[in-house]
Amino acid sequence: MELLTLEHFSGCVNQSFTTRLDDVNLEFVLVEARPIGAAAPHPMRKPFSLLFRNTAAVVFPQKTYPMHHPQVGEVGIFLVPIAYEKAGFLYQAVFN
Predict the structure, then answer these.
(1) Which residues have C-beta within 8 Å of that of residue 82, sequence separation ≥ 6?
(2) pLDDT < 70 regions, the chain
(3) Which residues contact 19 (CB under 8 A, 6 or more apart)?
């Protein structure tokens, strides 16, 4: 598999990614995809961050989720719950 970059996700903002947890289908909406910080000398990729929202009433644990999107395909993304908003819990993934 090729190395994931910001360009893989930048066209997917406000679109749904799906996964399964304990035989339940979950939907996470990508609400932000942005570059972060300065890259180390000779990086394999430029660092970036993804922010997802899930509207479930419970917070899901930080872990790698097999996320599926029609354009990106299926990729493992390590999500960390970082905040709660009226619209749901926010989860961040950082790639560096």
Answers:
(1) 90, 91, 92
(2) 1, 38-43
(3) 25, 26, 28, 65, 66, 67, 68
With a CB cutoff of 8 Å and minimum separation 6, the contacts of 71 are 11, 12, 15
Tokens of 70: 């029609």
13: tokens are: 């903002």
Q: How far from the centroid of its chain's Cα atoms is residue 90's Cα?
A: 10
Look up tokens 């598999």; give the residue.
1
pLDDT in tens, 42-57: 667 789 999 999 999 9
- The type of residue at 5 is T
For the chain, give every domain's residue range: 6-95
Residues 28, 91: contact at Cβ < 8 Å?
Answer: yes
Question: Residue 91 and residue 8: Cα distance in Å, rounded?
Answer: 18
Contacts of residue 73, Cβ cutoff 8 Å, sequence gap at least 6: none
